[in-house]
Design a protein that fits this description.
heterotrimer, A mainly alpha, B alpha/beta, C mainly alpha, A: mainly alpha, MetI-like fold, 11 helices, globular, C: mainly alpha, 2 domains, two-stranded antiparallel ribbon, 12 helices, about 0% strand
Chain lengths: ~300, ~250, ~300
């Protein structure tokens, strides 16, 4: 009796677990399918390159796409040196003890802050106090804050994963610690660093809440022939406001007036998701290639 | 090679545990000294303290003196980086850098300011020749060092240590992870290299100690029980403990 | 000493005296100072976030004279006179808890499927799915909620479609990847012998899972749920898009409501810095900040339990 009952419970539980696991896969397939099917029809060259329309239909996402990419680059320029430096500190310089524990706690708390809070902080300090205004630079700095803890953690893990014999060999050869870090450990850790950085880029690319009050929700008319970074119409002026693709999706959805707002949101979502998928797949592929290059490659210099 | 090199009352502590207990030992010039003893007897820890590698472990503390040419290497004021440039080290597990064969060797000299390609080429060739690896790798210097076999990697590590002209070479069971042919090559190498520098080798393998070393020191529980000419240790040791170990009664 | 005679050799006196002039000496300092600056910057950032948000958030109570009681228990939010944030606080907690209730069991099933039922193949199917889900940005989740979940609720369940139900459904999909991957890691870290010995005693797989596996890793499983909740609590845009944004305590799950984050998102841009209304929004941000600390403390407590 008992055994029979236990066996039946086992069967039911297995079915339930499998059902829900498959449900998750179905949700994912449904989500991706929905976004791409809904949006793909709307994506064309005109949509990707032209400026949005406020009231009329037929607007594009050109400036937003450019802003997202440019903001990502600016953010990486700020985050990579700081994040790698912090991660190297945690992996190579931090001694076990109170201070290190405090730093770990800080990293944990900072990575748990809601992105909207970081956006508000950016509004208060970067936009107002530092006088940057709604600008790419303020947005990039807010995103750097948002992204730094993740970067520190991936970097620390990447450096800790390097075999410690490598470090010993460096010490025994009479190298300084910094030389060991930069010339021996860094090349070995680089594949994971690259993967981690690209994955972080995906997160930066899709972030909107931290940007609404820092990079702003408007994009001034851009003149793509003007590459003087100081001119207010120049796309590469870091002090101009810049609405990114993710912020644009939000804005179109909640206050879009154009008759084709739904289609624009669908198209923009599809573009965003496809780009982030590319980031994820690219990160894996690049990580593998870099690993091969730095370890068992035929020729290296 | 008239310099003296040796330790005086050298102790190493891991926290409260005294892993090496007040060892005084001299390493004569142009000779190989083997350190033997059962696992955990402190011989490797002792070896690592000679080039102050134990400094890199935050728990470890070294007391006593390491004399070289009349000055104390264990003095905190000593520049450990310069010290390590004079004392090469090779481990049990080959640990070539994840770089090309050429760059593994050229790395040390380049760091010390040698920029001329011709000089570097010369150093790479000389070091590889000394490590008896040149003929095997001269056509593939730009390949990854990890593409070499285990025995070749170990000789590459020796070549790398030699590239910066050390006057002492520390070997921590350099052949114990290798096949017999590679082991034979490493042992030959040791016998040749001792004409140029002092070698201290830690080994588990007593035959190896007998084959390559001129002096042998027997370690047990962090103490040095006996040190003498290798022939003497293996044929007629003074101490009963040494005799037991040599004759295979324990360890 | 033939070798030593060349340029590379140095005697011990050189070793001491030249310390200051040598390349490696300042190189060491460059590394140490550079990496320390990076870490100090982290500390500065967090201290300033806490300081600025607190000083703004507390101004509501100390300068504008809004009482704590009014803020935390008042039911009316009127930008001109009364600042009762209770509707938003209940909204935030409601969507967070409901999302955890949905996503927790689902995530557990997915994690069990990956580690216990079909360890090899299950992982190969689900792991990428979970990672892809976690990569989808929150605005896209909001968009999907707006175009699928809200109409669905409106047509089949009732109401306008906007509300707590739509919010917690969107959030539960959003936090599912976090919960699943942490739970799967926890289950995978369990020593294999534990399962085998239970199965060897004649227990079925479900008995093993429910009586041995889950109780052993329970703190770690809960860690996943708490981290998911932390994410849900702080999520702004996806929720804002589907919750309806009506500033009152809702009577049902399908009635329009609001959360702390959705209110901040909508109103921060439309209020003047320094006004009471604006300060009250900062107070809500301060609540978000404090809840982050609560979640971090909870995670730490669970981790401590896990170690024992």
């Amino acid at each position: 009796m008992m055994i029979k009952k236990a066996k039946r419970a086992d069967k039911i539980a297995t079915i339930v677990i499998c059902f829900f696991a498959m449900l998750i896969v179905a949700i994912l397939v449904g989500l991706l399918g929905f976004i791409i099917v809904r949006g793909l029809g709307h994506i064309n060259w005109h949509f990707l390159t032209s400026a949005p329309q406020m009231i009329r239909g037929g607007g594009g996402i050109g400036p937003q796409l450019f802003n997202s990419v440019f903001l990502l680059i600016l953010t990486l320029i700020i985050t990579v040196p700081l994040g790698w430096g912090g991660g190297i500190y945690m992996a190579e310089y931090a001694k076990p003890g109170k201070i290190t524990n405090v730093i770990r706690l800080v990293v944990e708390v900072l990575s748990s802050f809601p992105s909207i809070v970081i956006g508000l902080f950016g509004l208060l300090v970067l936009v107002n106090a530092f006088g940057l205004g709604f600008s790419l630079l303020a947005g990039a700095m807010a995103l750097a804050v948002f992204n730094l803890p993740l970067m520190v953690r991936t970097t620390e893990q990447a450096f800790r994963a390097v075999p410690k014999e490598q470090k010993e060999a460096g010490y025994a050869l009479g190298l300084s610690k910094w030389k060991i870090i930069t010339s021996i450990l860094l090349p070995v850790a680089l594949p994971s660093l690259i993967t981690g950085t690209i994955l972080a880029s995906g997160r930066i690319f899709g972030e909107a809440a931290a940007l609404m009050f820092t990079a702003g929700m408007s994009s001034p008319p851009l003149d793509f022939t003007d590459w003087n970074p100081l001119s207010s119409r120049s796309p590469i002026n870091p002090l101009r406001p810049a609405e990114t693709l993710a912020v644009h999706i939000w804005k179109v959805n909640s206050e879009g007036l154009a008759p084709d707002a739904k289609e624009i949101a669908a198209g923009a979502s599809a573009v965003l998701v496809i780009l982030i998928l590319c980031f994820n797949l690219g990160a894996r592929w690049l990580g593998r290639v870099a690993y091969r290059k730095f370890t068992a490659a035929k020729r290296i210099d | 090679m008239s310099q003296a090199f040796g330790t005086e009352h050298l102790s190493v502590f891991y926290g409260d545990f005294e892993a090496v207990k007040g060892i005084s030992l001299e390493f004569p010039a142009q000779s190989v000294t083997a350190l033997i003893g059962p696992s955990g007897c402190g011989k490797s820890t002792f070896l690592r303290s000679l080039n102050r590698m134990n400094d890199t472990i935050s728990q470890a503390r070294t007391t006593g003196h390491i004399w070289m040419n009349g000055s104390d290497l264990n003095d905190p004021a000593t520049d450990v980086i310069k010290l390590r440039q004079q004392i090469g080290m090779v481990w049990q597990k080959p640990n070539p850098f994840f770089k090309s064969i050429y760059n593994n060797i050229a790395f040390g000299p380049r760091y010390r300011g040698m920029k001329k390609k011709k000089q570097l080429d010369e150093i790479v060739e000389n070091s590889l020749r000394k490590a008896a690896l040149w003929d095997e790798v001269k056509d593939r210097l730009n390949e990854s060092a990890l593409s070499l076999s285990g025995g070749q990697q170990q000789r590459l590590c020796i070549a790398r240590a030699l590239s910066v002209n050390p006057n002492i070479l520390l070997l921590d069971e350099p052949a114990s992870a290798l096949d017999p042919v590679s082991t034979g090559k490493i042992e030959e190498l040791i016998s040749e290299l001792k004409n140029e520098l002092r070698i201290v080798i830690v080994t588990h393998n007593m035959q190896q100690a007998a084959r390559v070393s001129d002096y042998t020191a027997y370690f047990y529980l962090g103490k040095m029980i006996e040190r003498d000419k290798t022939d003497k240790i293996f044929t007629n040791p003074e101490n009963k403990l040494t005799q037991d170990y040599i004759s295979g009664r324990f360890g | 000493m033939g070798q030593m005679g060349k340029s590379t050799s140095l005697n011990h006196n050189d070793m001491k005296k030249s310390k200051r002039r040598e390349k490696h000496y300042w190189e060491e300092w460059v590394g140490r100072i550079y990496t320390s600056i990076c870490v100090v910057l982290l500390l500065v950032v967090i201290v300033s976030i806490v300081f600025f948000v607190s000083s703004k958030g507390l101004a509501t109570f100390f300068e504008n004279g809004v009482s704590l009681k009014e803020f935390f228990t008042g039911r009316t939010w009127n930008p001109d006179e009364s600042f009762g944030a209770l509707p938003f606080i209940t909204g935030s907690f409601a969507v967070t808890l409901l999302a955890a209730l949905i996503a927790g069991p689902l995530g557990l099933c997915a994690a069990l499927f990956m580690t216990e039922i079909l360890p090899g193949r299950g992982k190969r199917i689900l792991q990428p799915a979970v990672e892809l889900l976690s990569g989808i940005p929150s605005v896209v989740y909001g968009f999907i909620g707006l175009s699928v979940i809200v109409p669905f609720i409106r047509d089949y369940i009732g109401g306008q479609g906007f509300g707590i139900l739509a919010g917690c459904l969107v959030l539960s999909i959003m936090i599912l990847p976090t919960i699943t991957s942490i739970m799967a890691d926890a289950l995978a870290s369990l020593p294999g012998g534990l399962r085998e010995s239970s199965l060897a005693l004649g227990a079925t797989r479900w008995q093993t899972i429910s009586r041995v596996v889950i109780p052993t890793v329970l703190p770690a499983l809960l860690t996943g749920v708490v981290l998911g909740m932390a994410r849900a609590f702080g999520e702004a845009l996806a929720v804002q898009m589907v919750i309806g944004n009506a500033p009152h305590v809702p009577g049902s799950l399908t009635e329009s409501a609001a959360t702390l984050t959705s209110t901040i998102t909508l109103s921060m841009g439309n209020t003047a810095m320094g006004s009471v209304h604006n300060n009250a929004l900062w107070s809500m941000a301060l609540v978000l900040l404090l809840m982050t600390f609560v979640f971090v403390i909870l995670v730490r407590l669970l981790e401590r339990r896990n170690r024992i």
